[in-house]
Each structure stands twice: as C-alpha cells, then as structure tokens.
Amino acid sequence: MRTLDRWLASPWRRAVLAALAGALPVLAFPAPSLWWFAYAALVPWILLARSAPSGKRAAYDGWFGGFGFMLGMHHWLLPNLHVFTFVIAALLGVLWAPWAWLVRRFLAGVPSRSRVMAALVVLPSAWLAIELVRSWQGLGGPWGMLGASQWQVEAALRLASVGGVWLLSFLVVAVNVAFAVLASVRESRVPAVAGLVATAAATSAAWVWSPRPDVDGRARIAVVQPGVIGGTDSGDRRFDREERLTRELVGRDVDLIVWGESSVGFDLGDRPDLARRIATLSRETGADILVNVDAHRSDRPGIYKSSILVGPNGPTGDRYDKMRLVPFGEYIPARSLLGWATSVGKAAGEDRRRGTEQVVMNAGHGLHIGPLVCFETAFPDMTRHLAEDGADVLVGQSSTSTFQQSWAPEQHASLAALRAAETGRPMVHATLTGVSAVYGPRGERIGSWLGTSASEAQVYEVPLATGVTPYVRFGDWPAHAALLVLAALCLTEGVRAVRLRRSAPAPHAPPARTVHEWPAHPGH
Questions:
Q1: Phi and psi, residue 168, nearest 5°
Q2: Is the pTM higher than 0.85?
Q3: How far apart are CA 460 and CA 437, in angstroms?
Q4: Rounded CA gap, 336 and 267, in Å?
Q5: Coil/strand/helix, residue 472
Q6: Which of 146, 234, 286, 490 is most deeply packed, by most CB within 10 A?
Q7: Is the dihedral of CA 463, 469, 471, 475 positive or negative?
Q8: Which residues have CB under 8 Å from 375's CB, separation 6+?
Q9: What is the mean pLDDT of residues 266-270?
Q10: 506 contact partners, CB below 8 Å, separation of at least 6
C-alpha cells in the first residue's frame, strides 16, 4: 500500500490513472455492450478520489476521470474533429471535479454509517446533475448517459418507464458507491449492503407495480437502408437505390415506409421530379413514405434537415425541421472564433438552420408518427413530448455514415430501445448506412438489426400500444429530485459552517501595550 501511495504521489501518474479509470464505464456501452460491467466500472475511479490527499487533488481526479470518460465515449470523433475531440473532452471533464470532491468528502478515511448512507444518495445525485448539464445540446447533448448502458436489460427498461434513463443512471452510480465501500471500508459494510438491498427492492417494486403498455394493434413498417454510396454524384445514385429498394415493397401490405437521414439531397420544391417519383412509389406500395431532406430550402434561406411525409399525391404538407443540431457537425458554435475548425477536421462548412417545434404526422392507416432526426433520439424529453402529443410510433432518421467502422452506429441504435421503454411507444430507428433497428413499446427488439454492411428494405411487424407511462406523466423527476438533494446538501453545509464559526473560541486578546515615557528633551 505504501508503494502504491508513493507511486500515486506523482501528479502526472495520478492524472493518467484517473483518466483510465474514467474511461472504464465506456465498455458497458455498444459496441462491447458489457452492460453488467457498468455496476462496478466506477469503483476504481471512486477509490482513487476517496484516497486523494486533499479536496483539491480529488477535484483533479474528477477532472481527469471526466476527460477519460468523454474521450472514451466519443473516441470515434477523432478522425473528424481531430484535436477538438481532446479539447471538448477536457472542457466537459471539468463537470466531474465537484463529484470527485464529494466522493472524498463522504468516503475518505473510515466514514461513519451516516456518511455512507448520505453518499448513496448524494453521489448519484451529483452524477445526475452532471448529466443534466451536459444534456444541453450546445454541449453535445446527453450522448453516453450512464443509464443508457442498460438498454438491453428487461428490468432496467421497466425502470426507464418509471423514471427514464435518469433513474437508471442514479441506481447504477448508487450500486457502484456501495461496491466501492464494500471493497475499501470494512467498518461501513452494513450501510453499503443496505444500499444494495434498497436498490434491489426498488427494481422489484418497479417490475411489479409499474404499468405495462397495452398492445392494441400492429403496423407493418418498412425501413429502407441504401448502404454506403460515395462519389460526387452520390445524391442521385443514393436516391436511385432507395427507389429500387422501395419498389421491392410493392404487394407487401406496408403501412409506412421510412428512409434515413439525408436520404434526399435536394429540396423537393426545387426538384419536383423527385417529388413525383416518391409519390409514384407511395401509390405503388400503398403507403406514405417519410423521407429526410438535407438541402437549401426553396421557400426560405438556409440549409435545413427536414422530415417530409410524401403520399400518393406528393408531399402531404407534414414537415418537421430538425431542432437540435450537432455542434461542429451541423453548425460551429461562435463561428467567428472557432471557424478554423473547418480547416483541421470535417466540421460544418455552413451552419444548418433550426426548426421551431415538434410535429406529429398523420401517416394514414390510423397511424400517427413522431419524427426525430439524428442525435435528437438521445434526448428523452423530445420523445416524451411526442408521446404526449399523440404519436403512435416514434421515428428516428439517422445517417452515421461518417462513422461506419466505429462504435457510433451501434451506440446510436441502442438509444431507441430506451426511448421506446420510457414512453411506452414503439420506435423505428432508420439509417442510411446502418445500424437500423426497431423496438416495441417495452423497449424489446423487434426483428433483426440492419448492420453497416446491409443495403436492403426490411419490413417489421410493430406492436402499437396505448396508455401513459409514469415517465411521460411525471417527466424527469429523478433529475429534479437530485437537484433538491444537492440543494439540501448546500443548505446543510452552510448551516454547519455557520455553527462552527459561532462555536469557535474567541481569539486571545493581544497583550496590553506599555506606554513608554521618553526622557524630556533637554530644551524643555
């Protein structure tokens, strides 16, 4: 132990170890998808911060650990953003500094039972506060929320219907804190075990009592994934392939056909010939087609990414313009200062414009759909609002073609499982180049994924459901509760500081100073 302490005395060694410890939870996400590892992945990071010689050093452990977590979660951006990937990871890593400081505050030394019990609530709450801050789309959005690692666990999906991904993150961190205490503080094992029992009880209660979606019908929805198509004329050739794949759906009795993000590279107002070709496909297949246009609009200035529903007579008038844009990928924040990013990576040469409101579309056959574009599927509030507004099916249109050989396509596809479970509505995740996936109203996988090597049209039997989940009804209540916990902590700490100041002994009075009588001047 002393050898380890001496080794950790070097700030740089400790920083490297913190970054590695912070990166460990990434293994719980796709592609590795070691979901079970999430429940112990934070333990090394917690033990390191707990052992910090000072609060300041613990904060640095949090910063470097956050850097490792963000870099590991977004490492697939390196070929595109280059040095900016490190800059973004370093800036966002600061968010974990207060969390690590709190780890030391509650778990350093031999913590009392009350401190351990408090840590089981405060530390997960502080983690949720971090996820809440970085959920702002200007900071990159809520990609990689810890609870999202549980997308394929049935019990976790049940919990998501109660408190969303927020509740999952809270419980995962609480379990990690309990395991860290069990591993390091023998005297405090009783409250740690109590925390694990409470987590198991909460999970069991949610399993038994939370309402299940009532399946009351089915819809046959087709996903058209053209695959990778490059070259200067890729827009025309992609459209040709999508047209050919869609024509294969004739006679298959589908209710809706979904194309991926940027599936049409030309504004349909400028290219009425393309609108007519899509309308012809709609008549032949008997289904409306949801396409996604990435182009300068003909009726207003700027580039928009727009989900447009096309029926047998052409565009139906239902249109959704993407509201939350990807920083650097679709716009450059403070372009006057950071515009040079276009010279070192594949940042947006021209900013996309934002839409102003979400839209629920009537796709015929009694089917109402709520479209989202690209990383908007990472935002649980957006799907919750669509469910509130009457969407029967959530539809995410994505591309991820830039990141084909990375973990990004599978990470993105997994998010739809959580959004489906949270809202009790099925979700279709349709991409240009994979991974495309469909999930039922409980977050269960429907059919097979279309991988990054696929170029085909696949039909899915999608169960439709009614009812309102607790998450849709009550919203992000775990995040709000976490903020109340932290506010109570600040109030308690403030009162404690005042009491300590009042009870401190008064400083000793300085000794009286003697007045010296100087001899009179001879002249007086």
A1: -65, -45
A2: yes
A3: 10
A4: 28
A5: helix
A6: 146
A7: positive
A8: 141, 143, 324, 326, 398, 412
A9: 91
A10: none
